[in-house]
Amino acid sequence: MLFLRHRSCRHHSLLRIHIKFLSTTSSQPLHLPLSFPTYMIWGSNTSLGKTLISTGLSSSFLLSPLTTKKPHKFVYLKPIQTVPSLGTILRPRIGILGFYNLNFREENRFVKDGVNVVSELVCETLYAWKEAVSPHLAAEKENGVVEDSLVLETLEKCLRKEEDIKEEEMDVFCVVETAGGVASPGPSGTLQCDLYRPFRLPGVLMGDGRLGGISGTISAYESLKLRGYDIVAVVLEDHGLVNEVPLLSYLRNRVPVIVLPPVPKDMSNDLVDWFGDSDEAFNSLKEIMISAFSERILRLNDMAKKAGNTFWWPFTQHKLVPEEAVTVIDSRCGENFAIYKGQDNQFITQQFDGCASWWTQGPDATLQIELAREMGYTAARYGHVMFPENVYEPALECAELLLEGVGKGWASRTYYSDNGSTAIEIALKMAFRKFSFDNGLLSDFPNNTRTDKSVQLKVLALKGSYHGDTLGAMEAQAPSSYTGFLQQPWYTGRGLFLDPPTVSLSNNKWNLSLPEGMHCKNMIKKGMSFSTRDKIFDKSRDKSDLTGVYSSYISQKLLQYPGLKESIHVGALIIEPVIQGAGGMLMIDPLFQRVLVSECRSRNIPVIFDEVFTGFWRLGTESAAELLGCLPDIACFAKLMTGGVIPLAATLATDAVFDSFLGESKLKALLHGHSYTAHAMGCSAAAKSIKWLKDPQTNHNIISGQRLLREVCTIHCFCLLIAYQFPKVDVRTVSTIWNI
């Protein structure tokens, strides 16, 4: 019989690594080999016998009959170990014979069954401490705290040692055994289920066959599933309580439960007979693990081809996307994708999500887990409940947070929808009603509902703007490739679209560029260049000569607009405050937008801010309106509002807008909605995200008491992506907006 020998390769390290961005493990992206099965061995508690599983698997794998002439190699890795005092062997280590000094790696080679094939057993402990307590306590007591990033980096290096072994030369099987229970802290204090999450290795859970073990096993399983781990089997020792029956019922037979014979209590027992009695169980477990690994690789290898034959991707010309260009995403951890690469050596690597998945993402890995937990709780509590004339906590809390945050000082009502484009459609309906109400167009309601369309309402908007892809939102945009006949045959462009002045950074100076038609012969060049970003946003510019130029330009455009007469009106202004996102990351002169808002206010034209992209700290403040220095009547928010885990949008409005829909007839109400309006999961995720992002205790980028972000390192990568997607854009404009 083979006995697993366990030796440590390194003692604790005082080295601390501070990672700013791009990767949670090191300055290089994670590289996790998938050319051989690698599994985490988890325990639902300590002292249950995780090493018994590791030992049994090594025996089953290394001593199994050879079906080929290829040798076998079993790799046992223990990233974290607290070591008992010399001569004391804890019961869960019963499958390991002897205690060995640290700073040692052991490899065993042997010939089996008389066949001249040399198989190998490698046992390695990465970091160990002398006192047999929880790793975070041992590390603190022995002054040997190891950062999470270093643990992961070292583990990755160990796994990559086996990557160069060719599949036709040797079969490799690897297990990574955790310390204690699923949620036991690592040496830095991070729970191990969170510590190892960037790897997301599939796992086997050592359950508890004792009294109370059903609850503990289920809790451990749920903690792992909540974090996105795949558990291929649950193993537990038989204590005569038949715990496997309720566990199988709970798991609905989706995950097999394997029962091991009772472990002898005599500490002098070498367990040879016990392992012999357990052969069938460990062989079964090994086959389950190998089969699950093969199925996973098969799925990953087939996904790109199946996607090309099944999906209809948005904004994509399928003829230009070969199979090898499809990105296969295995998972996400914080701001990194885990990408599968199916080349000669299959592996998982990290890829920074440079466009924040269309600007929906912002959370780190910690908030990602918090949101998953919050949504799981909400789904279990509510499922889905209809919204009209009803109230429930997530929807109410989210609405209040929005009004106290991005809507503070102006908004009094929250109208929920499902995405940014729909939020814009609702905003347009609100604005047109408010304009009609203020300008007497509804004076004969309800006697005349004006179904004859005798009144036409247009929008005032900016060229280069983007407000979504639904029909109404597209009508509020200037003509472009997205609104042409090929894309939108119904498009007419129902608005007056102004060419705005833009700001860019060159040679450490901010330069203002005016569109054609805005230049005056006698115009002084003063105020066309700025030394700092703050000077561009300075409200003192409102008294400059340029204010008059902007005002005159806007007034003339409104007067010259053909068709503006009694039956045709500009009924709404809609702008993306400060930055036009999809239009090319263009910074619009804040003074121009303030003057535009002022001119519309003087004409009773409601103002809509499209903050779907800019909202929730994208530009360093919670709302871009704070940067701009003026307030809307209506504003739309989505994307980052939920932390990027589920779709939800909100259109905020003033009391005056809301009041224009009040009346004795339901026909005067805002008749718009969808089945999942204000769905509880989205509202709870939004509430959690809004609170998390504005709290200095959880978001360390927030300057306490100032409602401003500190410098954000990852914006550099964002700017690089912009440079790639929009070669003509000066990315320094974007980076400086974020105080970089």
Could you please describe the fold and organization of this structure?
Pfam families: AAA_26, Aminotran_3. It comes from Salix purpurea (Purple osier willow). Keywords: Aminotransferase, Transferase. This is ADENOSYLMETHIONINE-8-AMINO-7-OXONONANOATE AMINOTRANSFERASE. This protein has 21 helices and 26 strands. The longest helix is centred in the middle third of the chain and has 32 residues, at 279-310. Mean pLDDT is 85; it is low at 1-26, 85-104 and 712-740. It folds into two domains: 3-310, P-loop containing nucleotide triphosphate hydrolases (Rossmann fold, 3-Layer(aba) Sandwich), CATH 3.40.50.300; 365-444 and 451-737, Type I PLP-dependent aspartate aminotransferase-like (Major domain) (Aspartate Aminotransferase, domain 2, 3-Layer(aba) Sandwich), CATH 3.40.640.10. A hairpin with a 3-residue loop joins strand 11 and strand 12. It is elongated, with a radius of gyration of 31 Å. It is an alpha/beta fold and 740 residues long. An eight-stranded mixed β-sheet has the order 4-5-3-6-2-7-8-9, with helices on both faces. A seven-stranded mixed β-sheet has the order 13-24-23-22-19-14-15, with helices on both faces. A five-stranded antiparallel β-sheet has the order 18-17-16-21-20. The relative contact order is 0.10. Helix 1 packs across helix 8, helix 11 runs parallel beside helix 19 and helix 15 packs across helix 16.
